[in-house]
């Protein structure tokens, strides 16, 4: 009878593994991404036959709520799904779901005081399984979190960005080893963010193109939207607002079955700002209204608080479970205290013997490795600072020794007399203190590179010599000869 029971249990286990597997993707219903609202309207009303079936339904419901921008409800539903996966022994699915819960928690814009329990759990599982794909996804999340966590002004911006780039490069290394498109797409998107913060817009767009190349293999239209929006963002920060509008309008044409409300809100805000910079007020007002309508619909603060409470409850439940396990262990230990005492004593003697043999050598080895690592890091930082300092000194040296610039028509303009420069079409007007004017063909972005630090770009069409500024006004500065030079809205000395 016992043998028959074991055979039946083995058969049921094999059947469950063949039907569901341990892969979380096996539970995903394709209807969820295509029509999350429609899926929610047709959820089965009868109770699921098994716990694992209930977990699968909750998994799909949670994603529907997430895609409909109801993240606070999605978080609680997915946490319940994770618990059911754990109860059913589907540890791989439960640990992979921890990453998806973390992405919801970390995506909240106005709430950053959350614990990293879910990503820590996922990272430990990735290390345990030696999965290149999971390690790549974990490092991508670490890099994304690092950009939000490092807000201490005492840490140089470039150091923060270099450290973040290192994390994303680690993600890319594991992604290439895994050869999976999703980790590769995310790793390149992380490097795009670093390049964008470094104002290296060409590199940023190259990373975006590589990210889209791998994302297209998954056939996800959301990534196409993300590519167009982020490309527009690079042009926006370059103050090329016409190109920014072009790409942002392309993004607007992409159908979004997922994340529609919050995604459209971000898009409308950037279009509003772009049209405002182009002084196109009718379009600016149009997108401002669309943005404000969505802003009124989405309550970020309430969502963030609800998500935080769900996570705190999960953490508390986990601690209670650990305490319960400790109590069980305590009872077993008390019943078998003599056996456990002998075993612990033997383990202690073995550990002490091993400790005495290698402790001193290990301590010396770790000290040397730590010193070597510190020296290498300090050397890299010093080399970067030295290289940057030499470049700046060379630039300042060339400016100081010449005291003038030579225009394309070979006219010499002395910097001490040059008050301001105005760009008009493809020409530059140079105004001297002695009322002399010079007209030369050129771009304002090129001539600013030839000028010393006291020349600043105060407007997209003006460069002013700060030595000639007499007073400051709202939207303009007054020079010593009483001339007014306009300034941009965000300009600060």
Characterization of this structure:
With 493 residues, the chain is an alpha+beta fold. The strands form three sheets. The chain has a five-stranded antiparallel sheet with strand order 5-4-3-7-6, with no helix packed on it. The termini are far apart. Helix content is 68%, strand content 9%. The chain is flat and about 100 Å long.
Question: How would you sum up this structure in a few lines?
Answer:
The chain has 493 residues and is of the alpha+beta class. The chain contains 18 helices and 10 strands.
Features:
alpha+beta; 5-stranded antiparallel sheet; single chain; 18 helices; disordered N terminus; 10 strands; 493 residues; 3-stranded antiparallel sheet
Instruction: Give start-end ranges of low-pLDDT stretches.
Output: 1-20
Strand order of the largest sheet: 5-4-3-7-6
Mean of residue pLDDT?
79
List how many beta strands DSSP finds: 10
What's the tally of helices?
18
Radius of gyration: 31 Å
Could you give the distance between the termini?
A: 88 Å
Shape: flat
User: What structural class should be given to the helix and strand makeup?
Assistant: alpha+beta
Helix content: 55-70%
Strand content is: 5-15%
Order of helices and strands: HHHHHHHHHHHHHHHHHEEEEEHEEEEE
- Largest sheet composition: 5 strands, antiparallel
Topology:
Elements: H1 2-19, H2 31-34, H3 36-41, H4 51-67, H5 71-87, H6 91-106, H7 117-129, H8 132-149, H9 157-178, H10 181-197, H11 201-215, H12 221-237, H13 241-252, H14 260-277, H15 281-297, H16 300-335, H17 337-402, E1 404-406, E2 412-414, E3 418-424, E4 427-432, E5 437-441, H18 444-447, E6 455-459, E7 462-465, E8 469-473, E9 476-479, E10 484-486
Antiparallel strand pairs: 1-2, 3-4, 3-7, 4-5, 6-7, 8-9, 9-10
């Amino acid at each position: 009878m016992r043998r028959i029971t074991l055979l039946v249990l083995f058969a049921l286990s094999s059947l469950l593994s063949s039907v569901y597997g341990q892969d979380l993707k096996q539970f995903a219903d394709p209807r969820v991404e295509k029509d999350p609202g429609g899926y929610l309207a047709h959820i089965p009303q009868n109770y699921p036959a098994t716990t694992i079936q209930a977990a699968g339904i909750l998994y799909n419901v949670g994603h529907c709520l997430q895609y409909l921008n109801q993240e606070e409800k999605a978080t609680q539903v997915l946490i319940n799904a994770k618990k059911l996966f754990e109860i059913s022994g589907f540890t791989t699915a439960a640990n992979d779901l921890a990453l998806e819960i973390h992405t919801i928690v970390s995506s909240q814009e106005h709430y950053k005081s959350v614990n990293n329990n879910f990503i820590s759990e996922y990272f430990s599982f990735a290390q345990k399984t030696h999965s290149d794909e999971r390690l790549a996804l974990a490092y991508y999340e670490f890099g994304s979190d690092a950009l939000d966590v490092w807000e201490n002004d005492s840490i140089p911006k470039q150091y923060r960005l270099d450290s973040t780039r290192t994390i994303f490069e680690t993600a890319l290394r594991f992604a290439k080893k895994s050869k999976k498109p999703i980790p590769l797409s995310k790793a390149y998107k992380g490097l795009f963010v670093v390049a964008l913060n470094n104002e290296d817009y060409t590199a940023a767009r190259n990373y975006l193109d590589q990210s889209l190349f791998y994302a297209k293999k998954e056939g996800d239209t959301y990534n196409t939207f993300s590519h167009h929006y982020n490309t527009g963002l690079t042009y926006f920060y370059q103050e090329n607002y016409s190109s920014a509008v072009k790409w942002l309008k392309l993004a607007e044409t992409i159908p979004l079955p997922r994340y529609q409300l919050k995604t459209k809100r971000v898009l409308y805000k950037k279009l509003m700002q772009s049209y405002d910079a182009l002084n196109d007020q009718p379009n600016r007002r149009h997108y401002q209204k669309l943005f404000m309508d969505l802003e009124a619909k989405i309550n970020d603060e309430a969502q963030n608080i609800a998500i935080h409470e769900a996570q705190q409850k999960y953490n508390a439940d986990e601690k209670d479970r650990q305490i319960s396990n400790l109590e069980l262990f305590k009872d077993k230990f008390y019943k078998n205290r003599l056996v456990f005492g002998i075993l612990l004593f033997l383990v202690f003697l073995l550990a002490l013997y091993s400790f005495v043999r290698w402790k001193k050598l290990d301590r010396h080895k770790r000290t040397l490795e730590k010193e070597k690592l510190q020296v290498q890091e300090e050397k890299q930082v010093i080399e970067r600072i030295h290289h940057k300092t030499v470049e700046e000194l060379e630039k300042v040296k060339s400016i100081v020794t010449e005291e003038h610039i030579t225009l394309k028509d070979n006219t010499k303009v002395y910097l001490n007399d040059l008050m301001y420069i105005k760009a008009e079409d493809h020409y530059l007007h140079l105004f001297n203190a002695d009322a002399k004017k010079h007209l030369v063909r050129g771009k304002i972005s090129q001539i600013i590179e030839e000028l010393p630090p006291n020349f600043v770009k105060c407007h997209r069409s003006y460069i002013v010599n700060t030595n000639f500024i007499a007073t400051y006004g709202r939207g303009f500065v007054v020079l010593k000869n009483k001339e007014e030079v306009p300034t941009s809205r965000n300009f600060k000395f």
